[in-house]
Each structure stands twice: as structure tokens, then as C-alpha cells.
Specification:
By secondary structure, the chain is α/β, with parallel strands linked by helices. The protein has a domain of 80 residues: Arc Repressor Mutant, subunit A. Helix content is 38%, strand content 19%. A hairpin with a 4-residue loop joins strand 1 and strand 2. Helix 1 crosses helix 4. It is elongated, with a radius of gyration of 24 Å. The two termini are 36 Å apart. The C terminus is likely disordered.
Length: 311
Amino acid sequence: MRRLPPLNAIRAFEATARHLSFTKAARELCVTQGAVSRHVAALERELSSKLFLRHHRAIELTAKGEIYFRALRDAFERIQDATDHVAGVTDSLTLRVKLPPTFAIRWVVPRLARLHALDRSLDVQITTSHSPVDFDREEIDVAIHSGDAPPPGTISTQLFGEILTPVCSPALLRQGRALRQPADLQRHTLLCSLHRPHDWPAWIEAAGVKGVDGNSGLKFENSSLAYQAAIDRLGIALAQTALVADDLETGRLVAPFSLRVPMRGAYFVVYPPRSRALEKVRRFVAWIREECAGMAPQMEGAGESRRQGMQ
């Protein structure tokens, strides 16, 4: 017979480790904070190992606690999936996706109708955040990661790289102030994303322009707001070409210069190894790769695997 610690103690530890808070774990489990603390202490005695470092106002996992938490998290996910499958729970086809805000607004949402038309049984729940996904602590099945490389320990496929070019409303070009060469930017308002402060300086340097401050102008929380401000004729935004392709095609935006500057970053679709066998994840990844394959040449690099792709 297997000798396992009490399930209540394991549940208390897993919830505490996920939230890094006894209070939040107690709220989730509908017990008192003291009860959670006692369960965790009992588990530590059972294992003869300290699982948390307790500070004055915070706790953190020890190295052994981190290993134990990841194993339990995976086990609970498998139990939940097996339970849903046996019970025939339809929510098992609910796909929880985490996306960067601008990627969600400018790229995914306009294409969701095509995903829904292909697979009406798949319900998609989208959350947005600039913070990297943490599959151990978030209820997320698959995510889009923006950066130089995908998060370690994930299965990933590169979708496309980041290529920058200035964009503006065609009406802005008709207002009289010249915009024929990059140096003319000094006569216009630059629209900047607070989340991407290095984009304008990088493009200006590549263009060999002097006297244009890439950190001046109107600043917005994210690139999507900057793109909308460009559409509304407030100035010139520096856009990732893949995220404004539809606007350029319809004429809502125009690219006044031919210079396009590739950056080191890229977009990756990522998911944890435990989700490898989930049909809903496989469907989403296949769909998004197909969407990338159908994009224009500015999506150079679509479909290239940076680490491990779908098996």
C-alpha cells in the first residue's frame, strides 16, 4: 500500500504555493488561515523537509518546496482532466488563453470568427497581460509569449518576428507638414508605447536620423492605444508590421517610409508539457499556425520552431 501524506495537507500546500499566501489559500479552500498553516507544518514534519521560507510579510518556496509544488500541480491537473473526461464535463473544451494585450486586440480577436467557424465546440476564454505566463500558478492552457526566447520548460513554436515601421493616418499626410524622409519626423508628434520604450530609438538609429528624440511625444500604456491614436491623426506610431497588416491593407494606416527594422524579439505559442495530449490545445496551435502561414511576407519567420513544436 502506498504511503502518502494526508490529502488535506497536500491540498493546503499546493494552494499556498500557488498563491504564495496562507490567507489566499485559506480563502480558496474555505478554511481558516490557521488551519492551512497547521496542515503545511504537518506536511513539513511528515516529509522532514522545510517547504517554505517564512518572512515577516511574505513566504517563498524552498528548493525542495518548488520541486514538490510542480509535481503536485501536474498531478492535480491530471486528476482534473481525468475527472472531466470520465464525468463528461463539457467545460473540458473550454480553452484558457493568455495573450499580450496588443497581440490580442490587433491580431487574435479579428481572427477568432474563423476559429469559431472551424470548430464551434471549442470555447475560448482570453485573458491579457504583459507579464510572462506561469503555467504552475495560473489556470492557463496555452499562451502567446513575446520576447527573445520562449519560457523555459515549455513546448513552443515561433509564430513570427518583430519588424518595426512608422505608420500614420493617410489624412495626416494631407495636412501639409512634410513626411518624405525620416528626418521629417522632428516636425511630427511621435506616439510611444510605455511597454516598448526602446522601439523608436532603435528605428531612428537604424534610419541614421539626427535630431529626433525617440522618447518624446505622446505615451500610451500599450502599442494598441498608440496605433489607435495614429488612426485618429494624433501623430506617428512605430508599429509591428504584423499587428497593423489589416490597417495597412484597408488604408486606415499608411507606412510613409520603406525602412523596416527587425528586432530581436518574436511571438511564440507556448504550453506546458502536461498539455501536450489535450486536443483543445492541439486544435488552437494548429489554427494559429495556419493563420500565420496565410499572412503576407511581413510575417517572415512564421512557423519556425525555436524549441519543441507539436508532436
